[in-house]
Amino acid sequence: MREEIIQFGDDNRLMGVLTLCPETVMDKPLVIILNAGIVHHVGPNRLHVKLARHLAQTRFDVLRFDLSGLGESLPAPPGKGYEEQSIADTRQAIDMMQERFGERQIVLAGICSGADNAYRTALEDTRVTGLILLDPYAYQNTTAQISDLAKRAQDPERWKRLAGRLLSGADEGEGTDEVMEDDNDRIPPEREVFGQQLQRLTDRSVRMLLLYTSSVRHLINASNQFQQTFREFDFSDNLEVEVLSHVDHTYTELSSQKELMSRLDGWLGG
Description:
CATH superfamily: Alpha/Beta hydrolase fold, catalytic domain
CATH topology: Rossmann fold
CATH class: Alpha Beta
Helix content: 25-40%
Number of domains: 1
Strand content: 15-25%
Distance between the termini: 15 Å
Radius of gyration: 20 Å
Number of helices: 8
Structural class: alpha/beta
Strand order of the largest sheet: 1-2-4-3-5-6-7-8
């Protein structure tokens, strides 16, 4: 395995790190890891570094790079909105990888907004044949809501915190335990639109792995709930969903990181 800093794209504005396997394996896809939010290409808890190096050891060539204006990449010229520019940047990353390594299949991976950008790019670019989406868009499921409320009601520490706030005169709703971890500015498409888009991708034979963590437990906390939510669609075997209810959003624990790598090995066929 070796690593190489690379500049590419319009005016070489984009910066990234290639993590290369010892020898080229033409039948394996090229993997591109996108920014998680505003975190630069090392990823939260250095997760992108660890994933890239692990995949290279299992004979994949990997790029982790910064979108325009993030990390070490320069801002883009004015004219495009965030989503449009993110797609353009990712397509330039695909261009560079295929120019260098041949027209191999492309797998895009990302957490949270990185998953969103990977997903949007796949809708626009038929060279993308695989998606690894960590905490992608999630949609309200009644079963998940009931399960989450029941679990919270059984937590004695939560009741102690609530009693303490009431005795101190604090508002009942105050406290970080009541704030869902995925509160952010992401605006998902309508559920039906998301389902239709997933259907387009599965009909195009794009393989997708969707992994959800505890951060969206109020929306989805069991794999079969995804099928319930999108019951009118047929994603066949191209779409796999798994809920890692013991894992936090940024895979902080080393055991969670190892579990993720093992799951990706199985899905990618490493």
